[in-house]
Amino acid sequence: AQSVTQLGSHVSVSEGALVLLRCNYSSSVPPYLFWYVQYPNQGLQLLLKYTSAATLVKGINGFEAEFKKSETSFHLTKPSAHMSDAAEYFCAVSDKGGATNKLIFGTGTLLAVQP
Amino acid sequence: KAGVTQTPRYLIKTRGQQVTLSCSPISGHRSVSWYQQTPGQGLQFLFEYFSETQRNKGNFPGRFSGRQFSNSRSEMNVSTLELGDSALYLCASSGGTVNEQFFGPGTRLTVL
């Protein structure tokens, strides 16, 4: 069975500091991996996705993530936090090549950005 | 292209009632999935429809059901509402081959 673990339900950084949100996955088959962001009272917006084309994936708003198979990790980073980055972030896994689009989500990390 | 739309955005119901939520996917997308989001359980997969057929189902009671129409629009129904059904219900559509899903804004259901 697939699963995702996000370490740290709350992360606080200062504006301009590095953002690092951690995600570890478990999957018996090659996975697709995703990071989504959710702003209050909104749906989920895709930040980036890993589909095996490249291990370092660049997304929107300056975010990127690196797929590390040996560590079963897909951590999300951004070099310099902006106030507008304050939101909840979800890591998700899906079967690559499976007959379904089902996503398994982590529990989310709420990012606070301090001025 | 218009995004995924969900109606209504907010609903208040009482225990024992039933409710129907609607989702219109991105034009051309044939897959529609539904998720329930609550503070306690997080984001949980309800079911997925593809070309009017349920392709996958999550671990929810039979009170939760859905369907998809020939134009790919989808509805989900919850019967005999319970307080614990209060949640944000998210719909997502997909049209590609890498399981990328595009989410709507959600329907906030409150059960009193």
Please describe the structure with a list of short key phrases separated by commas or semicolons.
heterodimer, A: 115 residues, mainly beta, 6-stranded mixed β-sheet, 4-stranded antiparallel β-sheet, 12 strands, 0% helix, globular, B: 112 residues, 54% strand
How does this structure look, described?
The complex is a heterodimer of chains A (115) and B (112). In chain A, 0% of the residues lie in helices and 52% in strands. With 115 residues, chain A is mainly beta. The mean pLDDT of chain A is 92. Chain B has 112 residues and is an all-beta fold. In chain B, the strands form 2 sheets. In chain B, strands 2, 4, 5, 6, 9, 10 and 11 form a 7-stranded mixed sheet that branches. Chain B has a 4-stranded antiparallel sheet with strand order 1-3-8-7, with no helix packed on it. The radius of gyration of chain B is 13 Å and the shape is globular. Chain B starts with a strand and ends with a strand. The relative contact order of chain B is 0.33. The model of chain B has no long low-confidence stretch (mean pLDDT 94). Chain A binds chain B through residues 32, 34, 36, 41-46, 49, 51, 90, 94-96, 98-108, and chain B through 4, 31, 33, 35, 42-45, 48, 55-56, 58, 90, 92, 94, 98-106, 108.
Topology, number of strands of chain B: 11
The end-to-end span of chain B amounts to: 37 Å
Question: What is the rounded Rg of chain B?
Answer: 13 Å
So what's the oligomer here? heterodimer
Largest sheet of chain A: 6 strands, mixed
Following the backbone from N to C, one meets helices and strands of chain A in this order, namely EEEEEEEEEEEE
What spatial form of chain B do the alpha-carbon principal axes imply? globular
Number of helices of chain B: 0
Biggest beta sheet summary of chain B: 7 strands, mixed
Low-confidence stretches of chain B: none
> How confident is the prediction overall: mean pLDDT of chain B?
94
Q: Overall mean pLDDT score of chain A?
A: 92
What structural class results from the helix and strand content of chain B? mainly beta
Structural class given helices, strands, pairing of chain A?
mainly beta
- Any idea what the radius of gyration of chain A is? 14 Å
Largest inter-chain interface? A-B, 26 and 25 residues
| Helix percentage of chain B | under 10%
> What is the beta-strand fraction of chain A?
over 45%
Order of helices and strands of chain B: EEEEEEEEEEE
* Number of separate strands of chain A: 12
| Low-confidence runs of chain A | none
